[in-house]
Amino acid sequence: MNTDRDADIDVPAVLALLRAAAAADGVRPVSEDTELRLQHGSPGGSDLVVRDGGALAGYARLDDGVAALVVHPAHRRRGLGTALLRQLLDLAGDRPLSIWAHGDLPGSAQLLAPHGFERARVLLQLRRDLAGIDPDPRPALPAGVQVLPFRPGRDEDAWLAVNARAFDWHPEQGRMTRADLELREAEPWFDPDGFLMAWRGDPDAGGELLGSHWTKVHPPGDAAEEAVGEIYVLGIDPGGQGLGLGRALTDLGLAHLRDRGLGQVLLYVEEDNAGAVRLYESRGFRRFAVDVSWRRDPAR
C-alpha cells in the first residue's frame, strides 16, 4: 500500500473508481464540484491517491479546508481510508478540516469520529414525482417583470452578482466564481432553456435581475436508473424578496422539467433551514438521502 500526494492523477482511473463506489453504495461518493475540479484541474487543491498492490484503490481531494475521500469497494477494510485521512490531516495541519460523507454511511462515522471529527452540517436530498406538476403554469409576475432563458456569454456577471447576494450565508454556493459557472456551462447537461432568469425591465437596457431558477437533468444512471431533474440553484436577490418570485420560478422550472419527459425531480437543502424544508415538503417533496459534513477543529 502506498499513498501519493499531488501525483500525476490518472483522471479516467479515478472516475472509474468513483463510478464503482457509487454503484456499490447507491450514492455519489464526492460532490459535483469535486468531480469537476478533478476533471478540469483547479489551482490550490491537493489530490491524493492510494494504491493497493499497484491498483488504484482510493482517492481524496482537499480544497480550502474541505475534503472528499473514497475507497474502491474491492479494497475496503484494509486501512486505506485511514491512510488517506492521515494524509489529509497532515495537509490541514492545525487548521480546521471538513470532510463530506455522502449518504451518511456507517463507515464514515467509524473512520472519522475516532480522529476527533464531529457532525457539523447535514444536507438533505428531497425528491418528488413530476406527474402532479402543472404543465402550463402562468404565475402572476410583478409589473414589469419577465422570465427569460439564460444567455451564455451575456448573463454571467448579472447572475453571479445576484447569486452572491442571495447566498451570502452559504459556504459554497455564495462563493461561486465565473470560472465555476463556465465549467458548468461546458458540461453536457447544461441547458440554457432550463436556466430561467426573472428580469425587471429589459436585460439589454439597464434591466435588473431579481432572481433565477437553474434546473439540471441528471442522465440515466447518475441519480437513478432513469433521468432525473433537479432544482439546481433557486435564488432570489434580497431586493426581490416578497414579490412571489420564488414560487413563480419554482413552478416554471418544474414545468420545464416535466416537459422534458422526466418523472422525478430532486433538490438539496440544509437540514437546519427549517423554513425551506417545510416549504418544499408542503410542495410534495419527501426526504430521500442525507449528506453529512464532518468537521475537526484542532483549536477547540
From TrEMBL:
Residues that bind 1D-myo-inositol 2-(L-cysteinylamino)-2-deoxy-alpha-D-glucopyranoside: E32, E172, K216, E230, Y268
GO terms, molecular function: mycothiol synthase activity
UniProt keyword Transferase present: yes
Binding residues for acetyl-CoA 2: 234-236, 241-247, 273-278
Annotated positions binding acetyl-CoA 1: L69, V70, V71, R77, R78, G79, L80, G81, T82
HAMAP family, sorted: MshD
Primary role: Catalyzes the transfer of acetyl from acetyl-CoA to desacetylmycothiol (Cys-GlcN-Ins) to form mycothiol.
Oligomer status and interactors: Monomer.
Family: Belongs to the acetyltransferase family. MshD subfamily.
Name assigned to this protein: Mycothiol acetyltransferase
Lineage: Bacteria, Bacillati, Actinomycetota, Actinomycetes, Geodermatophilales
Gene (name only): mshD
